[in-house]
């Protein structure tokens, strides 16, 4: 049976941010929740994995500050839909405005990244796989 997966923004970290050719790329070291039910709510597994968030026609608003930086809280928006603290996987969303607001350690600084498309790419293999809760 295939597991459904989400990125948990809280307890993840922003490792690097780059931009060019109209794209903003955010490299995260993140916690994944996986479940046959509702990931992050129902029993399942957690893992740690590097991911790349790529925003087409990306814009950055707010303070990047020093990186890497732990994510204290965050929210992902697709059009009018709000997803507190999670990004569902797989993720390649276009045609609607997408945005990601992150609040970063240590000063709860706000970083907003937005664009017309978000593509999430898993990098390497997951590690530290554990049962959850």
Largest sheet composition: 6 strands, antiparallel, barrel
| Element-level helix/strand string | EEEEEEEEE
Strand order of the largest sheet: 1-2-3-9-8-5
Q: How much of the polypeptide forms β-strand, as a percent range?
A: over 45%
Oligomer: single chain
Show unreliable segments.
Answer: none
Overall shape: it is globular
For the CA atoms, what is the radius of gyration?
Answer: 14 Å
N/C terminus separation: 19 Å
Number of folding domains?
1
Average pLDDT, rounded to a whole number, is 94
- Strand tally is 9
Helical segment tally? 0
Helix content: under 10%
Query: How does the helix and strand content classify structurally?
Result: mainly beta
Keywords:
133 residues; mainly beta; 6-stranded antiparallel barrel; 9 strands
């Amino acid at each position: 049976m295939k597991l459904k997966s989400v990125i948990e923004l809280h307890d993840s970290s922003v490792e690097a941010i780059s931009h060019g050719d109209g794209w903003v790329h955010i490299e995260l070291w993140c916690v994944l929740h996986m479940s046959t039910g509702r990931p992050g709510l129902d029993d399942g597994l957690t893992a740690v994995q590097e991911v790349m968030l790529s925003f087409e026609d990306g814009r950055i608003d707010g303070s990047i500050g020093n990186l890497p930086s732990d994510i204290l809280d965050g929210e992902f928006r697709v059009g009018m839909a709000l997803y507190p603290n999670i990004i569902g996987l797989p993720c390649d969303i276009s045609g609607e405005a997408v945005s990601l607001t992150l609040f970063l350690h240590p000063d709860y600084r706000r970083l907003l990244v937005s664009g017309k498309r978000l593509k999430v790419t898993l990098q390497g293999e997951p590690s530290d796989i554990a049962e959850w809760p």
